[in-house]
Amino acid sequence: MPNLLKQLASEGTLTIDLNAFIVCILVAILVAWITSLMYLLFYENRATGSQIHRAFMLISPSVTMLFVCVQLSLPLSLGLLGSLSIIRFRTPIKEPEEIGFLLLLISASIGIATFNFMFVLVLYVFVFIALSVKKLFEKKTIFGSPKGGVILVNLPEQEYGEKGTILEQHLQQDFKGLRMESVVSTEGTVSLQYVFGNVSPKPWSDIQSDIKSKIDYSKLNIYLTNPANIP
Fold it and tell me: 56 lies in which domain range?
């Protein structure tokens, strides 16, 4: 085993035997665990997602095994490519970040299978730094989503003509960064759509009651883009 580690540190390549294969699988499991932690740290607060990180412990060793086998036999590698082409995702990947984490894990698994451990280490260091910087500045720069949520209000056209300004001023008190997106008038009913960046910590029932006491609306819907990020 010491000779094996020495070869990995100095050359980055070695003959694939049982010891080398065990090292690859152990490193693949470690990388899967680190990737899962990164997923939870940088992605857990998203509103949607399939929680694909639960499969990382299976994906990483499996992909590593596949590419170890590819190196051992060219005919086998062609057969693997043909057999894997029938695999499809039955559960859709809902967010682009999940595809990114999946590609990160597959790239690391390929690097492990080809014994490029230093490349994998450098990849994860730079990715972690990039995600940390993004998380640090996402609320202040274009990296973050400018929309904390969407407000849809339906009210009679006459009510909007008399109290439309009051409604917007009242919404601005509880919803920071409020901006009107659209106004649609149909058959005596006005539909308003606003976007906002944050919301006050008041209970939702109080916010709704305050608006109702001043505006006679027929429908009020509030959708949060990132519920966990809204205080």
Answer: 2-137
